[in-house]
Amino acid sequence: MTFLPKPKLHHPKLASNALGFTRRDYEGSISTLCAGCGHDSISAAIIHACFELDLPPHRIAKLSGIGCSSKTPTYFLGNSHGFNSVHGRMPSVLTGANLANRELIYLGVSGDGDSASIGFGQFAHSIRRGVNMTYIVENNGVYGLTKGQFSATADKGAKNKRGVPNNDEPIDMVSMALQLGATYVGRSFSGDKTQLVPLIKGALTHKGAAFIDCISPCVAFNNHDGSTKSFDYVREHNAAVNFLDVIETRDEITADYAPGTVEIVRQHDGTYLKLRKIANDYDATDRISAMNYLQTHHARGEIVTGLLYVDPDAEDMHAALGTAMAPLNGMSDEALVPGNAALAKLNASLR
Amino acid sequence: MSQLQAVNDFVVKFANVNGSGSASANKLFAQAVLRMGVPATPRNIFPSNIQGLPTWYEVRISDKGYMGARGGTDLMVAMNPQTWDADIKSIVPGGYLFYDSTRAIPASKFRADINVIGMPLTQICNAEYTLSRERQLFKNIIYVGALAALLDMDTDAIKGLLADQFKGRDKLIQANYHALALGHSYALANLPCPIGLRLEKSDKVGDRIFFEGNAAAGLGAVYGGATVCAWYPITPSTSLAEGFTKYCERFRKDRETGEKRFAIVQAEDELASIGIVIGAAWNGARAFTATSGPGISLMQEFLGLAYFAEIPAVLFDVQRAGPSTGMPTRTQQCDLLSAAYASHGDTKHVLLFPEDPNECFTMGAEAFDLADRLQTPIFVMLDLDIGMNDRLCEPLVWDDSRKLDRGKVMTAEDLESGRVFGRYLDVDGDGIPYRTYPGTHPTKGSYFTRGTSRDRFARYTEEGAAYQDNMERLLHKFATAAKIVPGPIRRDAKEPTRLGAIYYGSTAPAMDEAVDLLTEQGIALDILRIRAFPFSEDVERFIEDHDQVFVVEQNRDAQMRTMIINELEINPKKLQRVLHYDGSPITARFISGSLAETAASLKIVPLRKAVS
Lengths: 351, 612
What we know:
The complex is a heterodimer. By secondary structure, chain A is α/β, with parallel strands linked by helices. Chain A has a single domain (23-330), classed as Rossmann fold, CATH 3.40.50. Chain A has helices at residues 38-52, 68-71, 90-100, 112-117, 120-129, 173-180, 193-205, 231-237, 287-299, 317-321, 333-336, 340-349; strands spanning 60-64, 81-84, 105-111, 133-139, 142-143, 149-150, 184-189, 209-215, 238-240, 242-247, 262-266, 272-277, 303-310. In chain A, strand 1, helix 2 (68-71) and strand 2 form a beta-alpha-beta unit. Chain B folds into four domains: 6-198, 3-Layer(aba) Sandwich (Pyruvate-ferredoxin Oxidoreductase, domain 3), CATH 3.40.920.10; 211-393, 3-Layer(aba) Sandwich (Rossmann fold), CATH 3.40.50; 412-471, no CATH class; 489-611, Rossmann fold. Chain B is built from 21 helices and 23 strands. In chain B, helix 1 (22-35) packs across helix 5 (155-165) and helix 17 (508-520) packs across helix 20 (588-601). The longest helix of chain B is centred in the first third of the chain and has 21 residues, at 170-190. The radius of gyration of chain B is 27 Å and the shape is globular. In chain B, 54% of the residues are buried. The model of chain B has no long low-confidence stretch (mean pLDDT 96). Chains A and B meet through strand 2, helix 3, helix 5, helix 11 and helix 12 of A and strand 9, helix 7, strand 11, helix 9 and helix 11 of B.
């Protein structure tokens, strides 16, 4: 297998965004994943979200670990720097990259093996630190590249392709993220683009650790009867709590809504999250009740999706560290090196 | 009975219980000797424990300037009953024992061939102080006062140090002066002052400074322009990250806004530490981690990525005795192989070997230039002996005209000018490609970094030829590294000799002294101090110039020797092992003893005898 470039030709009337880019400018090379893979839908949703937000592609850094999901950054944002790092270690590499230059947008792409098994610790600690990032787990419950072993998010009792049940309790990434202090938490389904695109847009504009668990069926190894991560199973058990719109200015909010049906949340960067409620009793700004809601509905066998939690006033790791506003990677020698006079003074104190 | 006689040339060893506050009093003694112009080298020998276990503080005093550990004790300050027997045993015949005589100790517990000086320290303290903490702390100052009298020291030096230490807290200064005088006057009135060991003012210290290697390396990272530090606490490296923190707070914090021009993260483990370093360096910041052997083991997978994807990173490895937890508070040079060839697959890494705090500083700064220049991990190999001890060294200097060398980085202008950018393309013939920082240009210069194979333009490929082409270029780059890393330092004997010795890092002071000891025995020795890996041509030449070369190191398996044989294809028979690895610092007596013995067994006749 080699690198497959996409043809550059496109329809002359293809729409452009405020920067003059078309959707095609946000694409990468041709996907080498299996036909029908949920991950390709997520890549398409990322392209869609970045296009609609008018993000300059080169100001996004895309990072991943190892696995099918971690291969996907090749298939979107071809003009962005990408880093396909080590299995389970994307969060630390992303954290370091973010420390070096706080002005870029950081998109971390990972899978359930990458984040819930080998990289569980790094997932947890990057969330705890409040790294300003969008962290997407493309969750299919199996190891694809090694041909179908269960991952740590596979439900107990779910069956693999050969009919053997999984005996271990699953790790719910969304519950973990909430507990660890993620300030934007969403869950979606690769088969539901209308829900997923705005969730990614909200995460990209959020300042702080934004986490999205995206259930993404594996057509090769986990889309059969008895799987709880198949297209059919997820569609049947999907329980969305809200529908999100990300809008750039307050003026765009025009319609009058019936009381209690819509919630408007202003984010740090000035964008607004408009939440149309589906579950009337769900409050996406209340972390504790979100956690309760998730547990209750999980026990009923439902997969709760939507924007599950947002703290619009979140602070990120740089705020906690007190780092300079200017990127560390662009600082001059004068700003960094104290010089010989300072050394002479130090020498004198060491005699 | 004989009484050892020496002026400005003896070893004082303090045996204490850790957590008793003795460390600062003992350091005070060493610094007072230095203030008298007499070179003194302290070594803190401590357990992996916070309170209650034995700890020793050994001060080598040498007017000749020898700074290696010597072995043997001339004056033992025995303050720990737990280690009494071993402490008494280590005193050289004719040496002195100073102890707390408050409680009677049976005569059988002493030796007939040493001079015993008892002082009722606890009794004096209990009479003077009521608070138990005061009794404990001032007991230490009282014995320093007594030592000053016994060694005929100038108490002004001690007083000056106390005044500096407690600047602005006059009450404390006076209290310490009082305790010092208490010990001093008691000793003058009741003990045989001075003893045969004496200190006289000298001028052998000059403008040298007294500094800890870890702190110096942390300061070097500040001067090297490091902005990101990610680390996980591990003895004996912790004070390096703390040193960086301290000097960043001093030098890199905006006076008005408080904004920090640095970011320090205490990571969840060593894997995350090196991951953060690699991510930051990939994104154009200078980044480092500080760790020890177990941390290097944990970082192996990431180090292969950094080598193969060509990402700069700096690692300070403050070595301790392994394997496993080994002896975590004892020194060794035992991580050479695991650092030099870290990770799976074919890898080689650049190593630097500082000899003292001065080089910890200079190499600590230079490592960042080398990392950016070579786009690869650079290891600075300290060890506990230089890392965690204060050592006399040359003052630190910085050339203000020096610019940080960021290596081959293409800017937006370079890309705009139409220059070809291939992330793994060797344009200049030195094996080092160009890189771009993320976010540089809207349409040019982006690339995908990966640990999988790729072609010269960073495009994924599994073609054997492209893979091999890249691996060959990495070797070529390593050959370039050999030309730009700090070269070895050679010092030839006054007369021609067929014997040579290779050494590195903290072995340096013991080696310098061993050369003098061997010269006295009529054995001439040329020496070469290796300062970096890969080896420069000078290493090969040195070995060619001699019939037998001793490789002196502080590990069991002769790791440097293995690397020399492996990299330079030297006949192993030509390289004699001289290995010291019990966890204590190597001594001149050990080196000269082993060399003389081996030289004799090799039937090498000292040149002087051969010609006479």
